[in-house]
């Protein structure tokens, strides 16, 4: 019934939805009929608020020939499509759906425009999808365009995502220069509202030597960084992903300061989470040390919203019954696991 009206229907909210649903179960003949009609209007449909979904459906459910033909319609227009609200979705779907040679043809059109795309609210999604779907060897031009730009991109709301994708999907040879630049700017990135995510990413997924380098740059500054809105998240990740030896040193750093550091941290809106994490991940012997350091401050902790979190944590590890923290005093003797042997 829709013959000769496919294009106008594709540009209508309900028409587009109807066509999308039918395409999932259409016969080969029906698909080809629809395809023949949309082909001449393909570029306009790609940038249309409803039409783009019909094109995307063909990248999902079309025949290999139909996908190839549509991908050819994209050629020569990759940059404007990547920067356009609806076109960027079509490019992403195409990259997921076509063979490597065609992916690489599409990607090549971005050469020379990478930074423009990365800093664009639509284009950054296309660059991320390239990094996720395309053979890293075909992406060397992206790596090269980032040379000297890693700090700027890591502190950018879209750039920080692209840097994380590179760290996930590119080869060690490609990520090495990126990591080298990150290490030059660790101190600023830890405290940046976007850069802190890049540093956290390395702490979670990076190689031991990169993690170690980041952790050593936090050492000596745990107290200050823990009280910082963004850096405190990085300190938590350091404590979580450190080796046992590194973790012991980080915890020792706040225990060693005549109790004051720990007291300041427990009352702080950000640092209290670092203390909680330390209690969670420390070895039993070090957890006891933390407990002894915290015990004299229990009464003052009750007065602070953040202090209450710490009390709850300690009850979890050291008390048989919640709420019995009030009885923690000299009469308990040295803190240890409950006598029934259940920790």
UniProtKB/TrEMBL annotation:
Which stretches make up the PUM-HD domain?
Answer: 1-318
The cellular component terms of Gene Ontology attached to this UniProt record, alphabetical and capped at eight, are:
cytoplasm; nucleus
Keyword Ion transport on this protein? Answer: no
Q: Which PROSITE patterns match?
A: PUM (PS50302), PUM_HD (PS50303)
One example of the protein's molecular function in GO is: mRNA 3'-UTR binding
* The entry's keywords: Cytoplasm, Repeat, RNA-binding
Q: Provide the coiled-coil residue spans.
A: none
Q: CDD domains per the record?
A: Pumilio
Tell me the domain of life: Eukaryota
Task: Give the protein name, as stated in the record.
Answer: Maternal protein pumilio
Task: Identify the species of origin.
Answer: Asbolus verrucosus
